[in-house]
Amino acid sequence: MPSLSIRVDLGPDASIGPGKVRLLELIAETGSISAAARAMGMSYRRGWLLIDDLKTVFNGPLVETTAGGAKGGGARLTAKGEQVLAGFRALERQAASATARELHLIVALIEDAPR
Amino acid sequence: MPSLSIRVDLGPDASIGPGKVRLLELIAETGSISAAARAMGMSYRRGWLLIDDLKTVFNGPLVETTAGGAKGGGARLTAKGEQVLAGFRALERQAASATARELHLIVALIEDAPR
Asked: How far apart, in whole angstroms, are the C-alpha atoms of residue B104 and residue A87?
């Protein structure tokens, strides 16, 4: 099914797109950076670097780690992390619904094959 | 200035995004695949492969080459190529204007830095 992949460019070397957003979402779901990274087929280090990059881009942490407790350490989104995740998903939904006609026109060009 | 980069996913291994669209645009402007590729810092072969990929995705050529004549050989967009280029740019414009509010909210999260 045709769909859009959107990256938001916020400055030189500062962006957020489907990969970083999915990582945030998986951290919220799993409570763990390593579990989230593993679910995306990336190393813990790669996941950590993406989270560190987001911290720089947004001038503050989107993820916080929690040490100890019955379940051992874990990770969760900060309030800003929740806002970035929700804001990006809202932008994606709005872009998809607003461009349905334009997307349909592009898809129609595919089906216009020579016979 | 914050902006969106959009890729349209049309199927497994079938997509069109800013790179391929810019290549089409430069071919239309320069009349040459090699000049267009060079302007993007890519090899002729890389440019040709992207154009070949688009031909597969859209079930027909988006670029046609013209041999001979006073200016030697060249390249130009087919009618379908013009439609794909215009259609993608229209989708980008529509997405950008429709998501101005959502983009502003994401940018506001950057400026919300700890002091």
From this structure: 10
Cβ–Cβ of A2/B10 closer than 8 Å? yes
End-to-end CA distance of chain B: 23
The string of pLDDT tens digits covering residues B70-89 is 555 799 999 999 999 999 99
A114 three-class SS: coil
**What does the DSSP 8-state code read for residue B68?**
-
Q: How many angstroms separate the CA atoms of B109 and A23, rounded?
A: 18
Region label for B88, one of left (φ > 0), alpha (ψ between -120 and 50) or beta (otherwise): alpha
pTM given for the model: 0.90
Cross-chain CB nearest to B91 (options A103, A110, A114): A103
Please, are residues A7 and A102 in contact by the beta-carbon 8 Å criterion?
no
What b/e sequence results for B99-112 when a residue is b if at least 16 CB atoms lie within 10 Å of its CB, and e otherwise?
A: beebbebbbebbee
Which ipTM score applies to this complex? 0.90
Contacting residues of B for A114, CB less than 8 Å apart: 59-60
Strands B74-77 and B63-66: antiparallel
Of the candidates A49, A17, A97, which has an alpha carbon nearest to the alpha carbon of residue B17? A17
Write out chain B residues lying below 8 Å of A105, CB-based. Answer: 87, 90
